[in-house]
Design goal:
Blueprint: E1 2-6, E2 27-33, E3 46-53, E4 56-62, E5 68-74, E6 77-83, H1 90-106, E7 111-114, E8 124-128, E9 131-139, H2 146-151, E10 154-160, H3 161-177, E11 189-194, H4 204-213, H5 217-221, E12 225-229, E13 236-238
Parallel strand pairs: 9-11, 11-12
Antiparallel strand pairs: 1-2, 2-3, 3-4, 4-5, 5-6, 6-10, 7-8, 8-9, 12-13
Helix pairs in contact: 3-4
This protein binds zinc ion.
The site of zinc ion has 8 residues, from loops.
Length: 244
């Protein structure tokens, strides 16, 4: 369910375009996550609220797990926090896979589910436009010890986009290292980097910074695609070239 309203006067609109026509306030788009990640925790309704104003993008995410986070992208700085319970890794996989599927539908790709082999490191498998695609999911780590700190209560994040690009780059290269002796293993792999709690990073501005600093990750490491996957299908960044 989608709700678009002014954060100031509460007027409800059809389109999420700030400023509010009535009072000039900031318009907020809220999406209730009914289906996504419903298996991880029954009874909690997740929601994602997004606002854009004066070149500041802000996302407030109440995860179905009970975790809460906020992230902002402004003046080339990613700031925010994540509050426990920690819901990364296995717990996040269902949501990431759902976001990817919804995004494929959104961009007009046809897919259906395929059998995945966990022992081969496949978190999820799809057939996209008649091609077998394996999805491998990995969570962004903003800094060493970050998720440990979230597990103990909460973790703050403050990175400029060069630092964020460096964090994403090391996540990708660590993953690639695992497949370095299997030349064709990554051809049909969609590497999904879970940025569920840092959804504001899924912007063209970040992609540009990344690609100014580093090579196209799909080409450099021979992945089929590298996607950053935020809390919903509206917060997905296909980083560099993507076969899908
Ligand atoms: Zn208003």
């Amino acid at each position: 369910m989608k709700l678009i309203k002014c954060t100031n006067c509460g007027e409800v609109f059809e389109e999420a375009v700030s400023p509010c026509k009535i009072c000039g306030g900031v318009i907020e788009l809220t999406i209730s996550l009914t289906g996504i990640g419903a298996e991880s925790s029954v009874g909690i309704l997740g929601s994602v609220s997004e606002t854009n104003r004066n070149n500041c993008k802000h996302i407030k995410y109440n995860a179905p797990s009970g975790a809460k986070s906020e992230s902002s992208l402004s003046n080339s700085q990613l700031t925010g926090f994540v509050k426990s319970p920690i819901d990364i890794g296995r717990q996040g996989e269902n949501r990431v896979a759902t976001c990817i599927k919804n995004h494929l539908t959104k961009i007009g790709k046809h897919y259906h589910d395929a059998e995945s082999h966990d022992d081969r490191g496949e978190d999820c498998a799809l057939i996209i436009d008649n091609e077998n695609v394996f999805i491998q999911i990995v969570t962004m780590k903003p800094s060493d010890g970050y998720w440990k700190s979230v597990a103990q209560g909460s973790g703050d994040i403050k990175l400029n986009l060069n630092e964020a690009a460096s964090a994403i780059k090391s996540t990708i290269s660590q993953k690639a290292l695992r497949y370095q002796n299997r030349v064709n293993a990554t051809n049909n792999m969609l590497l999904a980097i879970d940025i569920g709690h840092f959804g504001t990073l899924a912007t063209n501005e970040f992609a540009k910074i990344y690609l100014d600093n580093y090579k196209d990750p799909a080409i450099e490491y021979n992945f089929g695609a590298v996607w950053l996957v935020g809390p919903t299908e509206n917060n997905i960044l296909r980083l560099g070239s993507s076969r899908w």
